[in-house]
Design brief:
- The protein is of the alpha/beta class and 393 residues long.
- It folds into four domains: 41 residues; 64 residues, no CATH class; 165 residues, Nucleotidyltransferase, domain 5 (2-Layer Sandwich); 65 residues, no CATH class.
- The chain is built from eleven helices and twelve strands.
- A hairpin with a 5-residue loop joins β2 and β3.
- α5 crosses α6, α7 packs parallel to α8 and α9 packs across α10.
- The longest helix has 17 residues.
- The model has no long low-confidence stretch (mean pLDDT 87).
Length: 393
């Protein structure tokens, strides 16, 4: 009835008996007289802002202005993950703490961008928290390699072979060629080795540039790409077919490279040489200036230089994090974990067990989560013997 009352007052309907009108329409007389006074004073009825007179917890205007400025200057990588560290450096330089100012959180930065209409929302995107990230412990333990297509100004489709360090996320090389061939892949690896060194492993998909065309029928077949790298001590490993997430870091790099190219060079390149020059330029920006959220929001080159040790062909990758392995017990009561054979027991033949490996320590569990036993792997032996029937450490 509040809308009826306000409309009645605005129209100027004469009400002789206010008490009776309020009783019939279910309105408190005090509310009626208060609204009538407001209509007479303001000449009409309009909604007033419900914003509080003061908001002590609101982000100060100077901080909001800096967030919006950094959004413009850091483009195209101008999300909250990039703005936050830059804002923290600015706060230290200008002594925000002495002025009573604080660096806003990631969520607050996103709210500021949202209010300004600058936040790109993608509700269909899978939440980042649902992914589990895997990475090698040291730079040069493993490079990922993959090709992606680019279009020249005349419509010609060419391919850029990108090589990425798995640990530090350094974009070690990008080689443009007319197609994704073995020669182009080797040229990309030569460029990577010249600037950053050869890795112990190279992770690639099952494309014919990296894998033998008949590898799906016979896993023992090796490609010219694999054999060539093996001469320098580098071993090539392949992702599972139709599972691009295994090479996800390099797949994600393709999207970032395209975004950087579009930002710095709106017009398509006229030739392969011009595209190569552009990729070299954005690669330097990516490695030295762009903050990467997966490595502590620092540039990849800084992560490479800060690493206490680096891998290579003569220093195999080290296992430093826990891994989960779901295996089926063979008829002889054993399972194979990497190069090691563990005895679970013939009583479990044909059942599925889960092995949790943390460094050299392995714990076996039933499908219901009950521990079967544990042991410490001996790197000098293939057969590790039976599990110790003790509580898992």
């Amino acid at each position: 009835m509040m809308r009826l009352m306000d409309a009645t007052l605005v129209v100027g309907v004469k009400i002789d008996n206010v008490a009776e009108w309020c009783r019939v329409n279910g309105v408190n007389p005090r509310t009626f007289y208060r609204h009538r006074a407001r209509v007479l004073a303001e000449g009409g009825w309009r909604e007033r802002s419900r914003r509080p007179r003061s908001s002590p917890g609101a982000t100060p205007a100077v901080v909001v202005a800096e967030v919006l400025r950094l959004r413009r200057e850091l483009a195209p990588d101008a999300g909250a993950d990039s703005i936050g560290p830059e804002l923290a450096a600015l706060a230290r330089a200008r002594d925000w703490a002495g002025a009573g100012l604080r660096v806003p959180s990631r969520a607050t930065i996103n709210r500021i961008l949202d209010r300004a209409g600058l936040l790109e929302k993608n509700p269909a995107k899978r939440p980042r928290s649902s992914w589990r990230s895997f990475g090698f412990a040291r730079p040069r333990d493993c490079y990922q390699i993959d090709g992606t297509e680019h279009t020249l100004a005349d419509g010609t489709i060419v391919v850029a072979i990108d090589v990425l360090d798995d640990c530090s996320r350094v974009w070690v090389a990008s080689h443009v060629a007319p197609g994704e061939t073995i020669e182009a892949a080797l040229a990309a690896m030569d460029a990577a080795a010249a600037d950053w060194g050869l890795p112990a492993l190279v992770l690639a998909d099952n494309g014919t540039a990296f894998a033998h065309p008949h590898r799906c029928q016979d896993k023992t077949l090796t490609s010219h790409f694999s054999r060539t790298l093996a001469t320098g001590g580098t071993r090539v490993i392949h992702s599972s077919p139709y599972h691009p997430q295994t090479c996800g870091k390099c797949e994600r790099l393709h999207g970032t490279a395209t975004k950087l190219l579009t930002h710095f060079y709106p017009e398509p390149p006229a030739s392969i040489a011009e595209l190569q020059t552009r990729l070299d330029t954005v690669r330097a920006h990516y490695n030295t200036l762009r903050r990467h959220s997966s490595i502590g929001r620092i540039p990849p080159q800084q992560a490479w230089q800060a690493a206490p040790a680096h891998g290579g062909p003569h220093d195999l990758p080290r296992q430093t994090d826990a891994t989960v392995h779901v295996l089926t017990v063979l008829t002889n009561g054993t399972v194979t974990l990497g190069n090691h054979t563990l005895s679970i027991g013939r009583a479990h033949t044909g059942t599925t067990v889960t092995l949790l490996r943390n460094g050299d320590h392995v714990t076996a569990y039933t499908p219901h989560g009950e521990p079967l036993g544990h042991l410490v792997l001996n790197p000098d032996r293939r057969y590790q013997g039976q599990l110790h029937q003790l509580p898992a450490a």
